[in-house]
From TrEMBL:
This is THAP-type domain-containing protein. Residues 1-84 form the THAP-type domain. Keywords: DNA-binding, Metal-binding, Zinc, Zinc-finger. It comes from the Eukaryota. Transmembrane segments: none annotated. It comes from Macrosiphum euphorbiae. One of its GO terms (molecular function) is zinc ion binding.
């Protein structure tokens, strides 16, 4: 099975309804953030849920950082360049 948003009633779970490409974010590795994600998704789903991915539709636009942090030896002009 492919990657799906863990929010049960999310329209991105049905590719026939939403054919456009939607970014899916993996649950953070940080234990605190991971528990926050799990708590929120379980509350929204109104049941225990194995949370693996959450799609971009469930985040505020300003909360999504589309930034590339390059290697130090590439120079500071590349390190914090926005990705378009």
């Amino acid at each position: 099975m492919g990657r799906l948003c863990s929010v049960i009633n999310c329209s991105t779970r049905n590719s026939k309804v939403t054919p456009e490409s939607i970014t899916l974010f993996s649950v953070p590795k940080d234990d605190y953030l991971k528990s926050q994600w799990i708590n929120v998704v379980c509350a929204v789903n109104n049941r225990e849920t194995n949370v693996k991915f959450v799609c971009a539709k469930h985040f505020k636009t300003e909360d999504i950082k589309r930034t590339y942090y390059g290697s130090e030896n590439l120079g500071s002009e590349v390190n914090n360049a926005d990705v378009e």
